[in-house]
Amino acid sequence: MNKISFKIGLLFFVAIFLLESISMFFLHDNIIHSRVHDELSALQTRGNNHREILEASFQEETIRHIAMMEARTDTQVILTTPDDGIYMSSNKVTNEMKKILKGTPRSVPHDGLILEDDWKHATYIASISPVVIDNKVNGYVYMFQSTQKIKDLISGLNRHFLLAGLLSLLFMMIIIVFLTRAVTDPLIKMSDATKRISKGDFSVSLPKLGKDEIGELGESIKVLASDLEVLKNERNEFLASISHELRTPLTYIKGYADIARRADPASPDRDNFLGIIFEESVKLSKLVKELFDLAKMDENNFSIEKEEVHLLPYFQSIIEKVLPALKENQMELVLSCQSELSGVIDPIRFEQVILNLLDNARKYSEPNTKIIVGADTVDGKLQVIVHDEGKGIPEMDLARIFERFYRVDKSRTRALGGTGLGLSIVKQLVEAHGGTIEVFSSLGVGTTFKIIL
Ligand code: ADP
């Protein structure tokens, strides 16, 4: 049996058992109390009846008649004189009876009294009723009844209670077993499933568990398993891509370093080789930096610190950084932003977004073309566009350019120093700002990236 089933079962058992025991105890006590009370008042009433008859006719004849009547029952009547002499008794007067007769109190109310009610220990229960004629006590009617009858009655009752108790205990056990199973079965299944997931088996199958919290938990585990599987596959792919990306520049570096090492120090080729080695090292460090950026963004504690930024001077300062490179390519950059416009952004991270987009616009455009950077508020949202008149992106690649290591033209972009990580970094940063990025492009005409914050 599982630990949880045992715990819950035990808890159910103790709770129900306590509840049942307490209610049984009170029920038992109440029944006994009322049965004994019934017996006692019946006895007293019987005594009072005899007394009434005697009060109506206190004669030999009547007294004998009463004695005869009682002799046939399980009760016994004794009629005494006011000074404790025995007038009549329906049966033999035992020592216990005598003891009770002697202990009679001085004043007895007309309705009588219970003289002995200790059914557990005494041999008889007893009552007394005074016979009053013309305001004078003529005698006392004592009624006795053996307590054995009550004891038998109670022990019969106890037997019933015991049987009922045992039966309900049995039912309780059966119910608890089923109940516990119903509660713990899904939990145990889920625990097994998570164990399998942690061992790398993502093919968990949990039965339908309903729409309650447990059902939701089961659904979450299924979602978790499939997410984990996707994540694991992605990680493997990512690692494969990284090693592939690192291998290419490293092969160049290794190869040219080897040739340069053996080349004549005076040879002009040697400078050429060293130049290639330098370029490849630059690419490599860019790749490593971008990978590091992505890794930081994947961490949970990556935070965006937004502040109100005056956009015109902000964009101007970014553009200044790229102008030399644009000039080199004879490209023009136009900034369209109203002077009072401001936005709530993380200035450092958003600069990286714009720089990456501008770098792409430059890389994938011909000389003598124009780049436009525009910022505006549309429907209360900040909208930033970066537009170029470059070669454009084929329709079928548009959906994938934000993926890590995705490049449209592998060999050409690599030659241009592209790592394939720029746009995925852009996308993650924009999303971290709570924004979205879209791309529109037509081949040979140009490309527009639109960010909405
Ligand atoms: P890379 O470092 O290769 O530029 P990115 O993630 O920045 O990587 O871009 C992914 C691919 O999208 C690029 O390889 C390029 O083919 C295409 N691309 C990105 N920006 C543009 C653009 N402005 N014009 C044309 N193609 C672009």
Task: Explain what the structure shows.
There is one protein chain. This protein has 453 residues and is α+β, with helices and mostly antiparallel strands. It folds into 3 domains: 2-153, Beta-Lactamase (2-Layer Sandwich), CATH 3.30.450; 213-298, Helix Hairpins, CATH 1.10.287; 307-452, Histidine kinase-like ATPase, C-terminal domain (Heat Shock Protein 90, 2-Layer Sandwich). The chain is 58% helix and 17% strand. It is built from 11 helices and 12 strands. Strands 2-1-5-4-3 form a 5-stranded antiparallel sheet, sandwiched between helices. Strands 7-9-10-12-11 form a 5-stranded mixed sheet, covered by helices on one side. The longest helix is centred in the first third of the chain and has 54 residues, at 3-56. It is rod-shaped. The chain starts with a helix and ends with a strand. Adenosine-5'-diphosphate (ADP) is lined by residues 360-361, 364, 388, 390-393, 401, 406-409, 413, 418-424, 447. Adenosine-5'-diphosphate binds at residues 360-361, 364, 388, 390-393, 401, 406-409, 413, 418-424, 447.
